[in-house]
Amino acid sequence: MGFSWRDWSTTLIPGSLFAFGALRTLPPVDAIRSYLFLVTWLTPYIYFFNLSNQITGVDEDKINKPDRPIPSGKVTLAGAQRRWVAALSAFVGVAAYEPALMPATICWILTIAFLILTPGGDHWFGKNNVAMATGTWALLQASWVAIAPTTPKVEVYIYAVSAWAGLITHIQDLRDLKGDIAVGRYTLPIAFGDRGSRIIISFVFIPMAVYVLHLAGIMRLAPVTLSVLHVILMYRVLRMGGPRYDHKTYMFYTYIFCLILAFTATEGMDLKVLGGLIGALDFGGMKVSNGSDNISVEVFDVDRSVRVIELRLNSWRLASERPFWEVFICREGVGQRGKAWAKRLDAEARSGDGGKKRGHWMIGQTHQARALLDWGTRNQADVRRLRSQSLTYPSTANPWNPPRAIFGTEENMRSASARRWPSREPRTATRTRHASHSRITSQ
């Protein structure tokens, strides 16, 4: 703990906050299990970095941070090296267990190697603009994919916050000037002087970082709060209050970092109806994974094949009408049948009205789903009513009926299907529990 407690506000806490965006729709038991697994990756993430940094930076720590374990004599250099081997083994082992974490793991190991083994790691640009950006990307990417697949919006947030961190992390070097000079490190305060570096950080890097957040759509989540916090940060950087004051300024920067991730993770939490609907349906064989603007639901067929259905926010209507959630089928089918209905669905989506009918094929067969998912008019009473109704599902025996979830009554499904497929009589099925997946039995 002595090696890493200083960095919780830049690793464990922000990683946990960002992961909340993926965790928040999971059932409590699954959420706890997924988060504990993430902690098994975050812990060696920071421990491996700090051990690598402190084993190779003893001379600097004797000046800047003499209370650290090695310069204070609490841990021997040989003992720290043994811990380094254990931390690296655990770090790689967790990634080997969950391959989705491997890209972030490799990125972090290469980042640390760059910082410690190359001259670029001692230069202000390589140390912060490059390494801190890639390290933040690894942290946020892993924090999300350990829980659920990323979405395009989540990816944008990850890259934007990583760039933001790479631009502003120069603040940490303001407090370490003496130690960096002693070890020959070429940080921004050494390159441009103490006052010059503060001017560059305040009037170049911080405005650039804010602009990156603006481009990614993060500033709109809390424009006044984030703007005021960055102005305060600029003031603290320019004040020149000494090393202790600069350390508090750096900690203030880490708190802004955590707050930004909290804003991105809680975006859209007012959509309580959507979360209640998913929880109330209680599918037998289903896995739910959440993104910032969609929820993917994997429903297991009688033949154990997987059909993926997405609920996506219809964002193109935000400017003119109340937004609502539409039901889409993912393009990835199962076998030749899947390719056939995916192709047909694409053809219909592209036809007519300048492409504005995209997705309406599914909406045409899920009128009640659309109404229930319109958070402007519905509430939990509708969810309870929906749960009391029968859930119908098209039979997989009919190749012309693409796999889809139908919410509501059989009559609605038949009338909607007849309008779209007049030459085919839709077949329905009832859902029954069987082992760990849902069975489909023809009626």
TrEMBL record:
It is found in: Membrane. It is a multi-pass membrane protein. Pfam families: UbiA. Residues 394-443 are annotated as: Disordered. One of its GO terms (molecular function) is transferase activity, transferring alkyl or aryl (other than methyl) groups. The keyword Lipid biosynthesis does not apply. CDD domains: PT_UbiA_3. Keywords: Membrane, Transmembrane, Transmembrane helix. The chain crosses the membrane at residues 100-118, 196-215, 250-266. Its main location: membrane. One of its GO terms (cellular component) is membrane. Gene3D superfamilies: UbiA prenyltransferase. This is Uncharacterized protein.
